[in-house]
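Provenance

Sequences were taken from public entries as deposited. Structures were produced by running a predictor on each sequence independently, with no templates supplied. The record for ABC-2 type transporter from Streptomyces sp. MMG1612 is shown for reference.
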Amino acid sequence: MTGPRLFAAAAHQQVLLLRRSPGDLMSLAVTPLYALIFLAITEHAGRSGLTAYAVVAPPVMALWSMALFVSGGIVDSERSGGTLEALLATPASLTAVISARIGAVTLISLVGVPESWLVARLLFDVRLPVPHPALLTVVLLCTGLATAGTATAVSVLFVLARAARAYQNSLTYPLYILGGVIVPVSLLPDWLHPLTRLVFLSWSSALLRDCLEQAPVPGVLPRLGAVLGLGAAAYLAGSLGLRRALDRLRATGAVGLS
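Predicted structure for ABC-2 type transporter:
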């Protein structure tokens, strides 16, 4: 099976699995609740300047959360079903399969964007204009690609671990904080600032908020390059790590027992 056909088949499989397991869409179900909480806090505190944070944070959280949980769920479900060995025996690349399935989920998770906007408009009568709609679309797509690439890298840990879900929760909120999703990076301790620059969410979430400002968005190309560059670096590292991890598991015969 060629690359595009393999990618399409794996993505289609993931969509079918989501229809059978609606619990995997829980992040989209709680996105309006997060938007409600964040907007209620900013409105009650009279901090209208933080409205963009309150609206942007929930869909970005849903984006990363769904990609992370699916990347772990793929390995866990294949391992528990006894099909991981058969999957590795096929000519198809496991990295390509995981990436395609994560990509499908990432695309679906973008539904969180209109969800958050509707909560702001209908429940708080907050009209949040989008002065740069084209750039906003590009940033969302780049963020989706970087999310898929980073989640693919994280899947290496899930392949080596016996219980992938034990690590998933610990990989969500730290990235939300380091990525400036929930609170501005400027409010974090100074010694954390260099580390935040290595988290693609810090670049993408800032770009998303800037797209909601009337002023021209500064440094668009370098910042988009940082998002895509970090995502690509994570994907390449994940591909190499996944290949070595699978070689190790094949050599030890512990594919289903790791």
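The chain has a mean pLDDT of 86.
The CA atoms of residues 230 and 245 lie 22 Å apart.
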